[in-house]
Amino acid sequence: MKKIKIIIATICGFLGVFLLLVMYAPFTFGHKHNELDFSEVLKEAALDEETKVTNIHLLGAHDAYSHNIGLFSKTDPGEDGLASNKVAKIFFKGGMSRVARAQKHSAAKLLSSGVRYFDVRVSYYENSWYTKHGFISDKLELYLQETYTFLNANPSEFIIFDVQHIYTSDKTINDFINYLVTTELDGRTFNDYVHYDSSTILLEDLKYKDVINNTRGGIIFLINDDETITNEHKKYMYERGDGEDNVISIRSKWHNKNVIDDIILDINDEATLIAHEDFQKMFRLNQAQLTPDYLKAPLKTIFSWSLLDIAKHSNIALLKNDNFDQWLEAMPIFMVDFANSNYKDFAKLINEKIIAANQNLVL
User: Fold this and answer.
1) What architecture is the 36-359 domain classified under in CATH?
2) Fewer CB within 10 A of the end CB, N or C, for the chain?
3) Longest Cα separation, the chain
4) pLDDT of 28-39, one tens digit each?
């Protein structure tokens, strides 16, 4: 009987430790990231300067600026989902933070790993602009600084800065843009990297030569107007729409699936739809990341452990799919979590695919 009690106590102890890990551990296990240099991924493709930017193939980072989310991260003030639930945070903050952190690194490492499309989420918090994904990650200024440094060093490269979600609190979108164009970092501001004037060039006519110059790379800025943006600031941005129902500058369908076979079916359907619809005048984005869900699939999400772990497996599986080239042709932007994962050489292989696809573009 004593031995049985010891066995039961031991099992309960292990279960207790496991539950504590699941509930509170903010860390992710060892995930190898890309160490190869793809800082000149567009230059290597030798793009014709007349190439329309909507046709250029790019690697994208979903929830790009979330790398500093952890156990002690504050809740995004614009969040109204599970991350804002006080009870859930008491018992499960570690697990929640692991599925909020979509990228392992900040902008600098992502840029040098070939990422050129950034899914940006921003909130006005404690009198400043912060990045977020359920929880606060870091000041936006950190990511801007690294981006400007990269573009200064790589004049052949451009990025898409797509503000998919923004919480402005008592501010406006115009205030946000004013912050971007007045915040000086190393002597330059956001507008020093926006080389086009959107009031004179439609997105469908925007070309590679319009978004870079001889001294620094460029930024294409997508955001929605809350009817406060002044004409002075409108020239920097293109209205993005919502990606699905109100499609303006970008077609970006969220598949919201947590099983790889299900998302493959959805991506196939999306590629077929885009081939038959008039989306060629805008950016076409393959949102190719799975969506963990503690409410609908708690056990699967728990044992998957983190977004980084889910992504390292799904990214390479999607890249190896027989239909990948067809997807990339239909949707030139391939966006994933853990975009610089090196699991089974993902980062190397995806950049080689993108370079080859850009080299084969026909004007």
Assistant:
1) Alpha-Beta Barrel (3.20)
2) N
3) 84
4) 666 789 999 999
